[in-house]
Design a protein that fits this description.
mainly alpha; globular; single chain
């Protein structure tokens, strides 16, 4: 029976009936959804619908966080999916946020504002290229499973949009808004291409004893997000920035050689 099934599979492939499982397409569908959300954010920005533009970027970040996990869960990882994901990330978290911020700030501060937007977008492209070249590296240290090198693209997009969220919550800051936006473009771009170790949630495990407190905390966050979305997102962004020094300290401890081990 086993041989007959195998022969049948071969015959179906030759007849063009094998194909891929529909479930294997789900991760790529999510990636395309993230790409469309990023492009839609630019459309909202051109229309002056700034809150919708920011929400579209956040939605793209959620989809980006799901596609890789779905690919691993469904055993549907592929080189095609990895390349598509990088292209989607550049559009949604590189080009789109730079254009949104540039348009929102009244074309920023002339040529220097456009230079800042270009700097951010190029840094995002470089960060993604570096990430791709590091995939599958056999010499990757063990601690790298728990840390990114530099701020990841989705987090960078959320950070660079903090001036907009602050304006939604507290009102426009006047002429100073332009220079704040320029500073965030330059600063976030530098963080993305830096060698700074930043926490990765992919391999993080929650102890069984902390499962219920974690769920309660998630419920509080969702409730705060529904009640005061921009203030909650601003607080989350500030907390992320505050955790960057902690990630450096913990990574150095993890990278410290044990007794009898040679220094790197």
């Amino acid at each position: 029976m086993g041989g007959g099934d195998a022969d049948g599979d071969v015959q179906r492939r030759r007849a063009g009936l094998g194909g891929r499982r529909v479930s294997a397409l789900i991760p790529n569908i999510l990636t395309i959804g993230a790409l469309c959300a990023g492009l839609t954010a630019v459309r909202f920005a051109v229309m002056g619908r700034w809150e919708h533009a920011v929400v579209a970027i956040l939605f793209a970040a959620i989809l980006d966080g799901l596609d890789g996990r779905m690919a691993r869960l469904l055993n549907a990882t592929s080189k095609f999916g990895a390349e598509l994901d990088s292209l989607s990330d550049f559009v949604s978290f590189g080009a789109a946020p730079a254009l949104i911020l540039y348009l929102w700030s009244g074309n920023l501060a002339g040529g220097s504002g456009w230079a800042a937007a270009l700097f951010y977008a190029v840094c995002c492209a470089l960060r993604l290229a570096r990430f791709n070249t590091m995939l599958g590296d056999p010499n990757t240290p063990a601690w790298a499973r728990y840390y990114f090198t530099g701020v990841p693209a989705p987090a960078g997009a959320c950070l660079v949009l903090l001036p907009l969220m602050a304006a939604f919550e507290f009102g426009n800051l006047g002429s100073g808004t332009r220079w704040i936006a320029v500073g965030f473009l330059f600063g976030t771009g530098a963080l993305m291409v830096s060698r700074l170790p930043t926490f990765s949630m992919k391999q993080m495990r929650i102890p069984r004893a902390l499962t219920v407190p974690a769920l309660v905390l998630a419920a509080v966050f969702v409730g705060a997000l529904a009640t005061a979305p921009w203030a909650t997102l601003l607080a989350a962004g500030a907390l992320y920035l505050a955790c960057l020094p902690l990630s450096v300290v913990l990574q150095r401890r993890a990278n410290r050689p044990g007794p009898g081990e040679p220094l790197a």
